[in-house]
Amino acid sequence: MSLAGRFGLIMGALVIVAAAWVINDRVFWVRWFSQPPGDTVLLDWQWYQPVDVIKDGPSPPLPSAAESDVVIDQAALAAALAYAEEFDSLAFLVAHNGVLQFEHYGPGQDRETIIDSQSMHKGLLGVVATVALDQGLIPSLDTPASNYIPAWAEDDRRAITVGQLLEMTSGLAQAEFGTSPFAPGQRLFFGDDLDGPVNAMPLAFEPGSAYDFNHVNSQALHAVLTGATGMSYAAFVRQNLWDPIGAGFAQVRLDHDGGSARIFCCVQTRPMDWMRLGVMLANGGRMDDTQVISQEWVTRMMTGGVRNPNFGFHVWLGSPYSGTRLLSEPSGRRSPVSAPFLVDDVMYVEGRGGQRLYVVPSAGLVAYRAGRIDFAWDDAKIMNILLGGLQKNEESELEQNDG
Would you tell me the crossing angle of helices 379-402 and 74-86 to the nearest 10 degrees? Predict the structure, then answer.
């Protein structure tokens, strides 16, 4: 056979092998090629299947303050809106003591708009895990995660605790991300088997010895929650969180029909549902007459860890201020923080490029923002505008009363 003939046979064999490989991994490739681009991903949330609906129905709005009863200085609200609009925000809402002070939607959006959360789901996951801890379904933060992930019981991963998963100190290696579909981390987003990568992920360092923000920590909590509660993730959230706070439609993505929920990313719901969650947290775990989570566990969730004082149970904390916030001790990665927050108890749920829920218990303040993915979004700037406006209004009222 000629050289050209042999080359043709080799190439034909390679094409057959590649085609068989793609067909075997068909679900991944269909999802990878059908994912929406970054500039539409927040609103184009219906492209993914299968999903598990946490709850269906409307999102009951919080009560709104009459114009004369708004407690945040109008100039501050105008400045906050200008900043939100600078970043093409789809939704920007502010509440004080459970009452809406301000509600703004971008062009074509309104209260019914459903928005993809990106990694804000991690913060929701932290709240869900806190509910399970508060109810004693997870015995303690020191409970071995291997109680629910048997594959980890066979090696040094048996030392990983639930608390270390929540505080991102497990020591698990990273599923490296990149734009290429062949990057291991892409399988977490688009693959049809989430448990496999979690079960197989090795240790990179000793559990508890360093902070390292890692999607695998979050996804591992799926096995913990479903194993501890005996319920699907969506069913547990609905019964123990979404119904008690009076929230509406929400859904999560599954790796396959009847499979595991993707809980490190991307829950789809309305802005008002995030606001209801924030109001409950700002009110010490209480929503109306229902104590959804005990004050003790809400406080613990919002307490920084030993390895990272700015990170609680999958939520970020504004204090203490150091000019940066730690993303990874092993790699030394940090992100800048422009200024100290005006109060010490700012907590925020973070999603990619400025998707946020802010909760300030001491001020009774809750704010939500979703919009253009832009990593220049400044948490301290927006919250200090709002906190300063609240303080200015309170000082003005004191002066009037003294007069």
Answer: 170
Using CA atoms, how far apart are residues 280 and 300, in angstroms rounded to an integer? 15
Q: Do 13 and 78 lie in a common domain?
A: no
Is it true that the peptide bond before 50 is cis, omega within 30 degrees of 0? yes
Q: Are 161 and 142 in contact (CB under 8 A)?
A: yes
Residue closest to 80 by CA, chosen among 110, 65, 99, 101: 101
Is residue 328 classed as helix, strand or coil in its secondary structure? Answer: strand
Arithmetic mean of pLDDT over the chain: 93
State how far the Cα of 230 lies from the Cα of 238, in Å rounded to an integer: 14
Confidence label for 3 from pLDDT (cuts 50, 70 and 90): low
Has residue 41 been placed in a domain? no
- Flag whether the pTM goes above 0.90: yes
**Domain hosting residue 263, numbered range:** 51-402
Please give the tally of structural domains in the chain: 2
Q: How many whole angstroms separate alpha carbon 212 and alpha carbon 311?
A: 11
268 bridge partner residues:
116, 251
Give the integer Cα–Cα distance in Å for 70 and 74: 8
Query: For residue 310, how many C-alpha atoms fall within 13 Å in the half-sphere facing its CB?
Result: 21
Number of H helices, E strands in the chain: 12, 14
| Digit-coded pLDDT (tens) for 292-335 | 999 999 999 999 999 999 999 999 999 999 999 999 999 999 99
Cα 250 to Cα 110: distance, rounded to the nearest angstrom: 16
Task: Give residue 143's region: left, alpha or beta (phi > 0; psi -120 to 50).
Answer: beta
**CA atoms lying within 13 Å on the CB side of residue 139:** 7
CATH of the domain at 381: 3.40.710.10
What are the residue ranges of helices labelled H in 341-378?
none
